[in-house]
Amino acid sequence: MNVEYTGRQFEITPIARKHVEDGLTKIQKILGSNFETHVILSTEKRRHIAEITITVRNHAPIVGLSEAPEMTAAINGAMDRIERQAVKYKTRTISKKRQARKKLAQAGDGNSEVSLAVAVGGDLTTAVPVKVHSFPSVVKITETHIVQSSDSVSYKPLTLEEAVKEAEFRDREVFVFRDLQGRVKVLHRKKDGKMELIEAP
């Protein structure tokens, strides 16, 4: 695990480093140790801002941004956001692997049932044929639930860069905003983790 620190009007103290490394220990349990981390700690007036970016191989960066009256609280907030995104990333990865295995099994014999011979008592002469059934890894939900969310909409005009940071900060998969010319745009995070920009006509 490689960690790079940047301080903007803030001195990187041992306490701040310890908070970051404690948080990254949790992230390691989810993602493993094969990622790089860039930590930017800054102060603006009385606000402390922590921006932590984790880069996993072959995946879009995971960004946690948080501000608080104290730096330790800002670091904890950023780590919480990263942890939520890391769990989503890991869940998507496991789901893709399961689906790939299922397709491979179905392609092998055209049937999701696999025939095995199980030895009883450790002797192959007493082997009994057994059928193993595979079940779908994802349960389909037929009923749609609509929930109104004001947290996914920006009420002030934003540049594209500001909108991306705001969507990361609010931990939203879909984020609606107006650009500086007043056009409505939508940021959507796809299943592969990449951000997609949709412009309303």
Describe this structure in words.
The protein has helices at 14-31, 71-109, 160-170; strands spanning 2-8, 35-44, 47-56, 62-68, 113-120, 123-133, 174-178, 184-189, 195-199. The radius of gyration is 23 Å and the shape is flat. It has a 4-stranded mixed beta sheet with strand order 1-2-3-4. It has a 3-stranded antiparallel beta sheet with strand order 7-8-9, with helices on one face. The chain has a two-stranded antiparallel ribbon with strand order 5-6. The protein is 34% helix and 34% strand. It has 3 helices and 9 strands; from the N terminus they run βαβββαββαβββ. The chain has 201 residues and is an alpha+beta fold. The protein folds into 2 domains: 1-138, Ribosome hibernation promotion factor-like (Double Stranded RNA Binding Domain, 2-Layer Sandwich); 141-201, SHC Adaptor Protein, CATH 3.30.505.
What's a concise summary of this model?
The protein has 201 residues and is α+β, with helices and mostly antiparallel strands. The protein is built from three helices and nine strands; from the N terminus they run E-H-E-E-E-H-E-E-H-E-E-E. A hairpin with a 5-residue loop joins strand 3 (47-56) and strand 4 (62-68).
